[in-house]
Amino acid sequence: MTSPDTVSDLPTGMQLTALDEIYRERPHIYLDALRDRDPVHRDDVLDRYVLTREADVAALMRDRSLSLDPANAPPGSFGALVLGSTGGDKSMLVLDDPDHKRLRGLVSKAFNLRSIEALRPRIAAVAERLVAALPEGKPFDIIGGLAAQLPLVMIAEMLGVDPADSADFYRWSHGAEQGFNPAKTPEQDAKLRANDAALSAYLRRAVEARRADRRDDLISAMVTAEEDGDRMTTAEIVTMCKLLLIAGNVTTTDLIGNAVLALLENPRELAWLRTHPDRIGDAVEEVLRYDPPVTQTVRIALAPVSVGGTTVGAGASIMPSLLAAGRDPACHADPHAFHIDRPHHTHHAFGGGAHFCLGAPLAKVEAQVALVTLLARFKVLELDNRPRTRKAAPSFNGFDELWVTGRT
Ligand code: HEM
Fold it and tell me: Contact at 8 Å (CB) between 50 and 34?
């Protein structure tokens, strides 16, 4: 099947299937058409409603009556599959209040803006080391060389992983990335389970070690954390650590990769950024709007609810397209243009409401520092012309490899 070039080439009554190759490579052809023709789209193939208007996505994110607990969706439905796909103990991402509020309260301090700003010099030192190791004048993969490493090294340091264990820890963390893929093959599933068992055992040992001997790290902070006399159990801390890894690493990697691609495909914007380095924050916000690492999230209706003017029934899965919301012409002029100096960069790349991404400040600072460090070393950066393939996992948006050449 050839890829449609414009909205008018699309068949009427189309179904949006996120696993479809055309959707993966050229999603905005579909999403623009949906927004125009059917903004609260009933997708029978994947049993869900798809929202594409920014205003509807924003309203949905604000609605705290909705659930992220897969137990509230019928078995086999989109919500049950996506939210249940991480397996094992339920993390706070898929818990509703009061359990969600309790767990989030116990870890939120470590991730607030002030704690993360205090880490900026350390993030810069790690980025310097990684960027200095990139070759000059010949192609390198920016994902493997920088984007995948910076978030992993930082979260390992924050948790307090011993340097001697870091190679194992990095391997297990990469292995955990399949966790959010609802379309795993049996082989991928078996690998994920073995990986999960090894990572969980390692983390359990680390938690027990910190109970006996506290240090200045996040696992110790979770061991000590107390709210209303409440403590986190070992199982809860292990689950939280795994959530931080799967929610934080691949997403931040993709943010850095997508930022490099957007800048190199838009050389005028890159040149403008080089002359306006204080606008690095806006550059990262624009990437989050234009090419967000997480394309979609899910909410489950606990009772009939009005969504974008349509009433959906109890148990329905509602999928706000974070990708489509960032390109809504009702919110942004010339939405398909990458433009750092926009009046605003309104986006929903970090979700919203009670589950708004805990790691947003960390991800933003890491991306800012990675880009600043990269641009400082290489006065010229160019895309290599080898073909690129977007990730197959439908909720994640990025590349496994992105080859570039840099000259100092
Ligand atoms: C939740 C995106 C980085 C930890 C989420 C959600 C999204 C998201 C879309 C779901 C929100 C919802 O459904 O309303 C991103 C993106 C990132 C990123 C795009 C990078 C650019 C990180 C990092 C960490 C992290 C670095 C931590 C190290 C979490 C956690 C949750 C979450 C713990 C669950 C929050 C809750 O349930 O209360 N993130 N994330 N994320 N993220 Fe991130």
Answer: yes
